[in-house]
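Shipment paperwork, digital attachment
Item: protein structure file
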Amino acid sequence: MPRTSIITTAFLTTAALAAGFTGGASAKKVTQLSCTLEITALGQPNPSGTQVGTASCPDPFGSGTHFSAYTVTSGATPGTGTIAATFTNTYHRGTASGTAAMTFTATSATSVAYSGTVTYTSGTRKFKHVQGGGTIECTSTDRGAHKSCTVTSTLTGV
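Attachment content:
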């Protein structure tokens, strides 16, 4: 192999490694988080509404506030249905926003169980490249006025 080819190959290999490339693609850091939300609905849904609350997550998010707007669609049987929502969680170092899709079932006259998925679509500042999603599980003992939720997500860009 001519000397110029060896030098060129060595330079390109070093440049690719310095740029963080392996096999021609860059690796994104994957972060798995489990956060808790404590949410209060503002008024009664008719069929849409808003809710606010707190978000408590490990780093890099930390503690913050939650805001969501949602629409409820009643199910085929009483006490069941679906919810489509958009949300923004605001943390000290930026925001993380996305969508949620859930189903709900009344488990008693006052208790409701919710489950579904979340998708993170955008953010600001430290979280401007957030992407990913996961699951959401919520319970309410007062017909949905207050909810306690666990969100488990796999994210990149945080």
